[in-house]
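User: I'm writing a short methods note and want a consistent example. For Response regulator receiver domain-containing protein, I'll paste the sequence; you return only the C-alpha cells, no commentary, since I'll be parsing the reply automatically.
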Amino acid sequence: MRITNKPILLVEDDQVDMMRVTRALKEIHVINQIVHRENGEDALNYLQDEKSEKPCLILLDLNMPIMNGIEFLQAVKKDGRLRAIPVVVLTTSDDQQDKLDSFNLGAAGYMAKPVDYRQFVEVMHSIDAYWTLSQMP
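Assistant:
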C-alpha cells in the first residue's frame, strides 16, 4: 500500500479492533492515512462526498450497526465511481454464507480477524504485501 499516498478506509465499529488495525499497519510501516468510519452508512457518505479523497483500499467489518458490511458492499459495488476500489473483508465471522455473499458482491478478499495480536499483524502484512505487489488500474 506504499505505492500510493491515498488513504485506507477502515469500516469498523469496534474501537479495540480499530486500534489493533491502526497499530498493526503502523508496525509494518504502512504510511497511508487511515480514515475510520464506524458503520457502512458513515463510510458510504464519506465515499460519496466529492471533497473526500477516494481510498486505495477499504478494510471492511461485516457485523456493524445501522448498515452492515454486506449492505455496504452492495452499495459500493453498484456505484460506478466506487466499484473499482478494492474491498477486503476483515471480520470475526466464519460463516460460509458471509464468505459467499462477500465474494459474490465483489470483495477482493476475506480475512478472519485473529485473536492473537502477532497473527493479526501477519494478516495485515499479507494484505499490505498483496496490494503493494498488485498492479492497480
